[in-house]
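tool=predict chain=A
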Amino acid sequence: MNEPIQVTSHVSRDFLQNAAYFNTVPKVVWEYVSNSVDNPKPNQPVSVEVKVSKERVVIADNGCGMSREGLQNFFLMHAENIRRGRGESVRGRYGTGKCAAFGIADVLRVETVQNGILNIVELSRKDIEQSKSGKPFSVRDIVVDKPTTQEDGTRIIISQLNTRNIELPATIAYVERHLGRQLHNNTVVINDHVCEYQEPVSSWQRAFHPTPGLAGILGAIELVVKVSPAPLEKERAGIDILSKGIWHDTTLGTLEGDFARRIFGEVDAPILEEKYDMEKIPPFDNTRNMTLNISNPIVATLLGWIDECLHQIALELSQQEKERRASEETKRLAKQAQQLESILNDDFQSLQMELEKIRRMARLRQGDTDSDIIPGEGTTQTEYTLGGPEHGNGMRGELAGPGEEERTGLSLLPGEDKGGPSKVSERRHKQATFHVEYRHEQEDSPRSHYDRETRTIVINLDHPQIARAAREGGGIEGKQFREMTYEIAFVEYAIALGHERLRRDEFYSGSDALFDIRETINRVSRAAYA
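tool=predict ok
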């Protein structure tokens, strides 16, 4: 009699494939921190301490810890979450978190204490890869069931990192955003930074409820959309989608641009958890890509409804922006902004030219004989120019979408102009310059901030210091207001240059950045008042 065909799995390949989804430090830290928060002692908050360095990542908690049997379940691929099996609402579902460390490193060590018994185990990528047969591989025992006086809890040690970018600020922001209100009850410290639930400042908000027909699918839920007076960092913008208080996704639908970056909020859809076991296509998947499964009918309906609501908000924002730009105050402030931009961009251009000279000299020292060739004014007549239909004279709208007809004609046609720096595209020129904007961003918002994506320095007209200067110093065209906002812009510009250098040069130190910030402020302020 023939043996029945069975479905099997290549364990090591399955393990490492799941690990690949955890491809950043924020995702890995979030995975183990959320595991700690999901496993407290009865009726006690959890304290989690995270240490992130270039050598290793350590996550230690004072939760319930694990017994030897608990460790066995921890390393069981796709195991059922024990608390979920008891009917509790927790984040864990597929049991793939134990492989998260191998998304960024080669060694995972688990030290855990439960009821006065210590167990320590270790697993390395080498051990996993040696299991070429596809059979289960062993986790190395370091300490087995040893009596101890240590407090209950678990310590995860991830070492031999394969990434240079530890992304500390992004890790903190990721954990703060996604733990959210759970930080009111639990304590998480990352490199001495105490994580807090900090909702962005909002200038107004709207609440949406599904129509009776949609409510039959989604339930009687409420979507709260809030609008920030200023564009938010990427980690803070978007609508959080929760189910019974557990975060599963963040979305901005099809919305893009500055308006999208000002929107945040949340919606809790319990039906995603309640209908999970009844759906042929589950609303969640095990890839840990922090998104819902769009193929699930409930998820598709939910995301479509959220997208429709967000576009209603965008229309309101668009109308508000038109009214703001039409105001007399905005027109007068735009002139001051242009003067400031001229000062900053003259300095930036001089700085870029100086850096180019340094680069050319460095290449010469390395024997590059062509390094002194730089673009000139252009003396040769160009042979080609852009073809296709003439451009229209319409303005690009905030909600503009792609055109329906492809631009026809050859990409290049015979031309008559001479080449030279003046032919640099307007888009490239805008990206290489700094911009200044005066905005009303509420009294509690920062005095100023810098948007790296658009190289825009924003000055908050509602900040008490700036508002007082305008009120008591002759208005927005008075000397006191002008000099104060100039100084604010110079400081933001100097800090922005320091951040750019730190981001691009791994040998650039913090002390170098502080020195350069001071020098930049001195240089541009001298040029402004010379």
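The longest helix spans residues 328-365. The mean pLDDT is 81.
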